[in-house]
Structure to design on (854 residues):
């Protein structure tokens, strides 16, 4: 592969909101009805990786592959807008420095892959668009003149919550007031290093019993829920301030209170939609009840809360907890929800990090160090597989530049098409 | 039995709210945070029956038996308040007419029974307190000088929603503004005869998978839900007006829209509580999705909505529908939820009224007259017994005086104790 190839490969993280984004006031620019705030998760465990290459010889314009499937870049569509905005930033740079290659005039090929399967039940659009923007920013050498917040404004137009994946740590998406979206962007509330002890346990919940999935979404809530306006005007502004303070103070109890209340408030607005939108199922609710009981019992001993739950637009729970509580929470979850596959990324079960524990497992007893007043009958032991998979991760950093040029990290082959397609053809 | 016994036996109906009552501003007087509105159901199918007797010779003070179990009448408790308020009304009457027996000074024995088992999943406190008040009002010969609205004010202090069971048809509980509760009472919005075609199908949902039941209730929502205030101040007042108009106009589409939206709004406030309160389960939600799909498909054919769902503080659905839609809805429910016991009170299945259809039944096909665009896959066919029981009933009348004196309707024996206890002793 020629060494003068114009290419960059970046990875970007998943983020899980603790103050939820639900509702757009502009569906084209993706301007949200309220601010939101998220925790960036560790790319060592969950990430999107994207290679972007600019080449004057590409003859079919801009092209993009996602997990090996080519996506159409529709005129005026989200991909088109993002790539064009990035080209404009490059163009501005080129117009200031005539010695630069005119990359902005060349077509780009983009290849993006997620390291987590759809089966993980995690939305990949946030990490995906963040990796797209990060790799184009690296390709075009836009930083540090262009800030990550400026980049987040572009990622936002791909997928709203993608803007928050442009930063590590604790990240706010300021909804902004401008009709052009100039001030609708992400800012870092605190870096990962400020409060690195926060970990996450993702509970991937089986949703096998569902019929036809609902097609209703956030704009249906905006149009029909009388409660959403109150959420937007009163509830979220207060919580943004309080949870930012809790993060500054590493005050897990307050962080947990607000996180759980806001998840419930968001799902309440979904339920208040006509027709109602249901994301949580009976298993989701059982996890809520279990966490509430764990917290109540811990508080009765004069200790703090053990964990906080939050649910996005699906049945999966994400549990946030300080590192020292995770083993206890994990064991409790595995008792009530047998047979979940477990990605033991931190070696909690004592068999080395990154072990996977799959398939049938013995009925597990409850951990011996639960608070004394914990009510064992708060929920029943569920049928095997009610939680399909457990993923243990932690707060993480922002997008990473993996490679400049076309080396071993490249997802694109010499011909500018995905390597995995070429490998598949050879096999 | 002596014929000069001072006794009355009354029955009172169940009511199911379409604008929900949730939250008290005074927990002793039971003053609600918002108005509510209900449909009274037919006593031919679901009722509480109460015999009240006053006798100077009763030597252990006031006593009350509910379904054969004696209840303690605690000083200052709800039963005590209700009986005392009724005695005061009698006393006022006696003070105006010296020829009247001084019943207000005599102890009362009260025996109350519900004709529906706990298994029906219906709250019995509304019909029970309404029957208590109605039977004491008949015993004391208070009506018509004391109006049903005045009686409802007393029933309200027993169980809030009981005040609405003092009327038949369509009934509003006006929350009122007075701190004494003088203006917190029920009024009839329209009699049963105004819109007699409205029928109900009660779907008793299995809740076998629940762990420890939640003890949190409406006052937890008042204390912690930021959305409830908006419901109280904005949502309910608008809906009370609109649904009253819809009832006046026999406009089922609007009635259904508001009924479903208010059920969802109420459960949204429960979910917005800390810790969250969940009443609906996966089966409840599947019924919602089925009804929403039936309505959408019917509207796509240019017809009106077929049914409206509403959920009280539990997983059971009550479906309201015009009489002509019930057979279609019933057959659809029985297709997706096999093996429900069915109380065929109207002889819909062609085997005579009041037949019961129990135990395993063949998998039932969908009815042939569903709207063409109905999506059969909106939900899956559930496991047998997911809905345990179906009860078909209709809008009904208010409390009935079954008997004055001690005849064949009496629940009390000659000795002033429940007949069913005497029968049980003899057996």
């Amino acid at each position: 592969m020629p060494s003068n190839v114009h290419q960059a490969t970046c990875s970007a993280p998943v983020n899980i909101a603790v103050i939820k984004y639900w509702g757009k006031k502009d569906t084209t620019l993706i301007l949200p009805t309220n601010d939101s705030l998220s925790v960036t998760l560790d790319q060592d465990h969950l990430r999107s990786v994207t290679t972007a290459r600019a080449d004057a010889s590409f003859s079919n314009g801009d092209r993009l592959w996602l997990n090996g499937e080519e996506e159409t870049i529709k005129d005026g569509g989200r991909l088109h807008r993002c790539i064009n905005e990035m080209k404009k930033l490059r163009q501005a740079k080129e117009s200031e420095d005539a010695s630069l290659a005119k990359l902005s005039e060349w077509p780009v090929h983009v290849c993006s892959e997620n390291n987590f399967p759809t089966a993980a039940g995690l939305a990949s659009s946030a990490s995906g668009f963040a990796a797209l923007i990060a790799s184009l920013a690296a390709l075009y050498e836009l930083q540090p003149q262009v800030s990550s917040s400026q980049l987040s404004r572009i990622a936002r137009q791909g997928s709203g919550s993608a803007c928050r994946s442009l930063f590590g740590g604790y990240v706010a998406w300021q909804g902004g007031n401008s009709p052009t979206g100039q001030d609708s962007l992400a800012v870092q509330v605190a870096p990962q290093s400020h409060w690195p002890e926060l970990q996450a346990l993702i509970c991937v919940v089986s949703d096998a019993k569902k019929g036809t999935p609902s097609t209703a979404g956030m704009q249906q809530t905006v149009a029909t829920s009388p409660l959403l306006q109150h959420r937007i005007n009163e509830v979220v502004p207060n919580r943004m301030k309080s949870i930012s303070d809790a993060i500054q103070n590493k005050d897990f109890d307050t962080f947990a209170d607000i996180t759980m209340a806001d998840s419930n408030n968001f799902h309440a607005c979904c339920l208040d939609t006509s027709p109602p939108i249901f994301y949580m199922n009976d298993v989701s609710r059982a996890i809520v009840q279990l966490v509430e009981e764990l917290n109540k019992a811990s508080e009765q001993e004069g200790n703090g809360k053990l964990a906080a739950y939050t649910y996005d637009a699906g049945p999966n729970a994400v549990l946030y907890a300080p590192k020292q509580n995770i083993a206890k929470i994990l064991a409790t979850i595995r008792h009530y929800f047998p047979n979940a596959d477990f990605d033991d990324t931190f070696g909690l079960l004592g068999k080395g990090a990154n072990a996977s524990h799959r398939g049938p497992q013995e009925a597990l007893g409850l951990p011996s160090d639960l608070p004394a007043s914990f009510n064992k009958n708060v929920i029943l032991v569920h049928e095997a597989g009610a939680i399909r998979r457990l993923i243990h991760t932690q707060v993480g950093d922002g997008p990473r530049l993996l490679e400049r040029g076309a080396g071993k990290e490249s997802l694109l082959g010499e011909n500018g098409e995905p390597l995995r397609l070429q490998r598949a053809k050879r096999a």
Notes: Chain A touches chain B at residues 209-212, 214, 226-227, 229-231, 234-235, 257, 260-261, 264-265, 267-269, 271-276, 278, 281-282, 285-286, 288-289, 292, 296, 375, 377-380 (CB under 8 Å). The mean pLDDT of chain A is 93.
